[in-house]
Amino acid sequence: MTRDEVSQLIINKKRHKQLKWVQLAEAIGQSKEWTAAALLGQMTLSEAQAEKIGVLLELPVDAIEMLQVVPYKGSLPSAVPTDPLIYRFYELVNVYGVSIKELIHEEFGDGIMSAIDFSMDIRREPDPNGDRVHIEMSGKFLPYKKY
Amino acid sequence: MTRDEVSQLIINKKRHKQLKWVQLAEAIGQSKEWTAAALLGQMTLSEAQAEKIGVLLELPVDAIEMLQVVPYKGSLPSAVPTDPLIYRFYELVNVYGVSIKELIHEEFGDGIMSAIDFSMDIRREPDPNGDRVHIEMSGKFLPYKKY
Amino acid sequence: MTRDEVSQLIINKKRHKQLKWVQLAEAIGQSKEWTAAALLGQMTLSEAQAEKIGVLLELPVDAIEMLQVVPYKGSLPSAVPTDPLIYRFYELVNVYGVSIKELIHEEFGDGIMSAIDFSMDIRREPDPNGDRVHIEMSGKFLPYKKY
Amino acid sequence: MTRDEVSQLIINKKRHKQLKWVQLAEAIGQSKEWTAAALLGQMTLSEAQAEKIGVLLELPVDAIEMLQVVPYKGSLPSAVPTDPLIYRFYELVNVYGVSIKELIHEEFGDGIMSAIDFSMDIRREPDPNGDRVHIEMSGKFLPYKKY
Amino acid sequence: MTRDEVSQLIINKKRHKQLKWVQLAEAIGQSKEWTAAALLGQMTLSEAQAEKIGVLLELPVDAIEMLQVVPYKGSLPSAVPTDPLIYRFYELVNVYGVSIKELIHEEFGDGIMSAIDFSMDIRREPDPNGDRVHIEMSGKFLPYKKY
Amino acid sequence: MTRDEVSQLIINKKRHKQLKWVQLAEAIGQSKEWTAAALLGQMTLSEAQAEKIGVLLELPVDAIEMLQVVPYKGSLPSAVPTDPLIYRFYELVNVYGVSIKELIHEEFGDGIMSAIDFSMDIRREPDPNGDRVHIEMSGKFLPYKKY
Amino acid sequence: MTRDEVSQLIINKKRHKQLKWVQLAEAIGQSKEWTAAALLGQMTLSEAQAEKIGVLLELPVDAIEMLQVVPYKGSLPSAVPTDPLIYRFYELVNVYGVSIKELIHEEFGDGIMSAIDFSMDIRREPDPNGDRVHIEMSGKFLPYKKY
Amino acid sequence: MTRDEVSQLIINKKRHKQLKWVQLAEAIGQSKEWTAAALLGQMTLSEAQAEKIGVLLELPVDAIEMLQVVPYKGSLPSAVPTDPLIYRFYELVNVYGVSIKELIHEEFGDGIMSAIDFSMDIRREPDPNGDRVHIEMSGKFLPYKKY
Amino acid sequence: MTRDEVSQLIINKKRHKQLKWVQLAEAIGQSKEWTAAALLGQMTLSEAQAEKIGVLLELPVDAIEMLQVVPYKGSLPSAVPTDPLIYRFYELVNVYGVSIKELIHEEFGDGIMSAIDFSMDIRREPDPNGDRVHIEMSGKFLPYKKY
Amino acid sequence: MTRDEVSQLIINKKRHKQLKWVQLAEAIGQSKEWTAAALLGQMTLSEAQAEKIGVLLELPVDAIEMLQVVPYKGSLPSAVPTDPLIYRFYELVNVYGVSIKELIHEEFGDGIMSAIDFSMDIRREPDPNGDRVHIEMSGKFLPYKKY
User: Fold this and answer.
1) Same domain, yes or no, for J12 and J62?
2) Same structural domain for residues I48 and I92?
3) Between helices H3-16 and H47-57, what is the axis angle to 10°?
4) pLDDT tens digits, residue range F19-51?
5) What is the pLDDT of residues B82-135, one digit of tens each?
6) Would residue D79 count as lying in a domain?
7) Is E73 part of any domain?
8) Which domain holds residue B42?
9) Which of C21, C39, C66 finishes a domain?
10) Mean pLDDT across chain G, nearest whole number?
11) Is residue B9 scored above 90 in pLDDT?
12) Is A114 a catalytic residue?
């Protein structure tokens, strides 16, 4: 059983049982964003968390074990994503990348926003002209070490 | 004079004059995020805005005119960015892409977050363990039209 | 069962039963263009629609369920398509891309034609010199938000 | 003087003189779509047409001559376009490509829509929910020759 | 059964039965060039043709049906072919491409040689210094439509 | 002066002087196909030939010398050509590649058609349904050496 | 059974039976270099040779037949090889390519070294500072045909 | 002055002065293969060697200095070379790569042939059927260190 | 059984048996770094080593044999790695590559650090600000041979 | 003046003045590794540091200013480096990447070694069998944040 097959199995089981990501997240005491990433093969569950998910989704032992292994990360099948929703984020990096770089360097100096010490929150933002997707990201600023 | 040369000139002039992005933004009544994107060749200024920037940064007429032309967008020199700061955002798309897709579809159904009817806010988030970069994105949800 | 296998199964069943796309489209109350896209893994059916298609094409439960899941979109196996018919459209984007961009910006200003709030109509255009393929596309113009 | 420089020069001259594509098109008796493509280095003008454009835009002799040479076509700097407006058309090919193929083959049999014996019309479609970009394409159907 | 599997099956059956391409071609009343392309997944047989081939090569019903479906064309596993024989043709396009373009445009004006209304003939050309491969191609010239 | 600049200069001079490829070819006693390839940087002229072309096209000494140097071959700016005329040949390799391979191997055994001991002839083939481009290629068959 | 599977089977059988390439080569009267290439899917055996190998390695009939079919050549899974031993040869082409080209053209004029009428010999070259790999290549020089 | 410009200058000077690579090689006491590689930007000359070449080819001081700097190596403009002569070597790596690997490992065990402690000799091999290019390579075998 | 399957099996067995890499390394008398590389398909075990690992991990005979075969090396599924941990090393090569090259050449002259006569040591470096990963690499310097 | 031109200028000036990296490093109170990276366009100098380097290398004001601007990082001209010295490091990532990942995760859990809070030391390691390049890397371990 490969990690991709575990991810596919989880998506199918979740659909059959009509569970929401937020319900799975509450079961393991994490956010829905982290939980989705973990169950889709990008983060690592503790043994206790994996077992809770295993019970909720009736996963086989093999799958439960795999959820505790650090995965080879990267969820997209091509360097430039073809899916329109995901491509829009790639486009934002392409269009705004240099601007974000300028603004962060102006504020913080040379360094990066961590993608590891990082959290994300996605929610609906009601709007009379059509609701909006609201995403907040928070990543620790890491200055380049001088040595 | 190409658009890239205009962008390079603006960065140099801004450095010489010790101006901040927020000062340029206030001069044209937009956010610092939109302003940086516009001056770096990704958005289009109105004639009045272009002239104000032209005065502030002592740009030649050619450059002022070019800022009013809709640019061919895309600010990165390669499909997978090599700059560590920008790469981290590409990595977030790679690691979280499928999860973001799952969460948005669960909440909104089939569709995308617009990268056009979109705004972004970048700011420092003080934190005793090291300050953080805080980014908020807001994009209109666009449902796939059924016809 | 993967989504690709569902698409392949639908193509085979449709051929065996000698059904036309327009017949499948009428059964679910959509256009033939949207219907073909949906059944080939690019759009999402409602439960009622999926069940009607399931009956018409004698699909297994698994396939009927999958038609209701938002798919990872993108129907081509390579970045530059090799199939001559599809390549011609890619070529049109390559040859006319910058011209279309100029004409839309001249008429509407900076922004894009939505590929989400979008519809398409394909039909035969009789012509004494040989019939023609006639395609109409209509996409909402989305102006870049200034903020 | 390269062909790209001629295209760039034409865009600049057109902006300075505040001419519309439709005005340039009328001057040479063609559509605005074909005219934009020709002046941006994708089609070939006759001698009379090139000279009319040369007068209108005050082009040097070199540029007028180049407009009469069949160009090496292809207007985009990368295989997958980075500009959001142009990318949307690439995305349409990606999402709808196989569906268009299915529908054309069902109607016409094996063959392609010509991208050479082809015309295009782009216009504004007023709509209370926001105006739309309306594009009509008409290409001769070319059946695969059996021999 | 995928189209690739049908092609592989045909190659094996043809080898076992010691049939030549020209024999298969005669059975369906086409040239050996078109017939090889069709049986290797690039062209579409009529029902009568598919059944004759089915009998000759003892193909299963599934394969016979697939030969009547318009295939997703493109026979090579990579953008630059690795097989030395096929690469030589790619090399010819690379070395002679611009020259062929110049010569065709000089003779015909702007347009292309059709790859659809096209036929090809491959034969042995006896030569005392070593026999030669002789290939004739004939494609309709298609002038770019002005509109 | 680079080889590309020599090629560009030759194309410009040829246009100004209204010379045909066949006239340049006769001047050096070669075919128009070989001559176009040589003058566009893919073949090597003898000293006498280079000087004749130099006189005809009024080339500087530098260019005349460069025509006698074996060039780094390959005339296309990208692995998959974007120009529609040249792409059609690439498409033919893609669609017919495996078929040509099968037919040559059936006739000759394992080996290739030489792209070096090779000649080509391009001419107009009159046809009431529209004239055709007729191309003949002749390349020595080279069997794989067994050792 | 694909050709790759035949190659894999041969490698396994050879290891189990503890045979050397030179022993397989002697059995069919060829060099060890040609034999390895043929059995790994790059050259074509005669019927007699295939049967001898079939007996020696206890291959199934299917595999014996496949060894007599001209293969689609190219043994590497990526354009730039990742295996360090094979990469060193790619590196030699990269570092020395232009130099080899210069030296061959200086000696022979415009043309190539054939990779078809070609033989290779690999052997150990004893050396007190560490034994060396010694490779000799011999390929017929093919001058570009002038026509 | 870039290293590429130095290489181009050397090729031009060498042509004007009608010098052979072997003459340049003798002047600095190295082989013609190493000398060509060094002068084309792949190896590093000593100060004495660079000055001798500088006198012979009348190079400017800048160029003489650059010949003593370790270059960024790699002489080809694309990952898969387009020049037919150089491509043939790439093809040999592709067709024979796995076979060479098998033969070296059988003889030496796990390790590589060094491309650094390496020498090459290229010479004409007279042959009544057409002269041949003969290349000898000798590289130290480097076993993988176990630790 | 492919080499990838052997690697996957070893990872699973190791997890089930709760063995550490250092325990496997001690069993065969090598470092944990070399051992991990060997068991993950990049190095070659001796017969005795393979059998010890076979017993420890209860591997089938097939897998034990494969561990003694020199593998086709390269452990990553794409040219630019997507996994964040591995990408950081790729980024270091990208950011520091030219600097490392300068420093090694300044110290040693033209040549390389061997990746074959090479060893590596990875360990935890305690640090009050957060523990660090400490990696030591030692590779023989190989000077370019002059000949 | 672009950043690349600044890097090139620094390399030339350093060579003319016969300065070592360690001397430049001492002048600004950093290590030679960080200093080389900074002067080659990958790190950012303080104003005082830039001025010291400016005096030492006689740089123009423009260059001194650019050394204080955060650069767009990435020092290599292609995704897979062609220079043999730099490629060896890429190869190490390819061959050892998954092993390093396994060993770090076993020791630290899920997370990465920082390439930002990172230092490196390169030195000569004397060895009777040929001196070795010794590289030490130290990067903070960053655990994936759970949220």
Assistant:
1) yes
2) no
3) 50
4) 999 999 999 999 999 999 999 999 999 999 999
5) 999 999 999 999 999 999 999 999 999 999 999 999 999 999 999 999 999 999
6) no
7) no
8) 3-66
9) C66
10) 95
11) yes
12) yes
Catalytic entry in E47, E88, E123, E132: E88
Contacts of B82 in chain J (CB under 8 A): 73-74, 76
Could you give the CA distance from residue J51 to residue J53 in angstroms, rounded to a whole number?
A: 5
Candidate from F11, F83, F84 with C-beta closest to D116: F84
Strand (E) or helix (H) holding B133 = strand B132-143
pTM: 0.94
Residue E95 forms contact with H (CB below 8 Å): yes
Domain-terminating residue out of F18, F40, F66:
F66
Mutation target for G interface from J80, J89, J92, J98: give the one with most G CBs within 10 A: J80
Which other chains touch chain A, taking contact as 3+ CB pairs less than 8 Å apart? B, C, D, I, J
pLDDT at I125: 97
pLDDT in tens, A43-89: 999 999 999 999 999 999 999 999 999 999 998 989 999 999 999 99
**Token digits for H56?**
């012979």
Instruction: Say whether D113 sits in a helix, a strand or coil.
Output: strand
Q: Are both E57 and E92 inside the same structural domain?
A: no
Would you state the pLDDT for residue A107? 95
Lowest mean pLDDT among D109-113, F13-17, I84-88: F13-17
Rounded mean pLDDT, J136-140:
97
With respect to residue E18, please indicate whether it lies within any of the assigned structural domains.
yes
Closest alpha carbon to C49 in C35, C60, C32: C35
**Number of domains forming the structure of chain F:** 2
F87 touches chain C (CB under 8 A): yes
How confident is the model over F140-146, as a mean pLDDT? 96
- G147 to chain E, any CB pair closer than 8 A? The answer is no
Q: What is the SS3 string spanning chain H?
A: CCHHHHHHHHHHHHHHCCCCHHHHHHHHCCCHHHHHHHHCCCCCCCHHHHHHHHHHHCCCHHHHHHCCCCCCCCCCCCCCCCCHHHHHHHHHHHHHHHHHHHHHHHHHCCEEEEEEEEEEEEEEECCCCCCEEEEEEEEEEEECCCC
Considering the domain architecture, whether residues C89 and C61 belong to the same structural domain is answered as no
**Residues I19 and I52 grouped into a single domain:** yes
I59 is a domain residue: yes
Please state the ipTM of this predicted complex: 0.94
Distance from CA of F23 to the nearest CA of H (A): 28
Task: Say what the pLDDT of residue E1 is.
Answer: 82
Residues D105 and D51 in one domain: no
Residue ranges of chain E with pLDDT lower than 50?
none
- Residue G115 is part of a domain; what is its CATH number? 3.30.1160.10
Q: How far apart are CA C133 and CA C35, in angstroms?
A: 19
Instruction: Kindly state the percentage of chain G with pLDDT values over 90.
Output: 95
Whether F13 and F42 map to the same domain: the answer is: yes
Indicate whether G52 and G7 sit together in one domain. Answer: yes
Both tokens assigned to B28 = 């044209």
Contact across the interface for H43 and I144, Cβ inside 8 Å = yes
I42-96: per-residue pLDDT in tens?
Answer: 999 999 999 999 999 999 999 999 999 999 999 898 999 999 999 999 999 999 9
Q: Domain with D50 in it: what CATH number?
A: 1.10.260.40
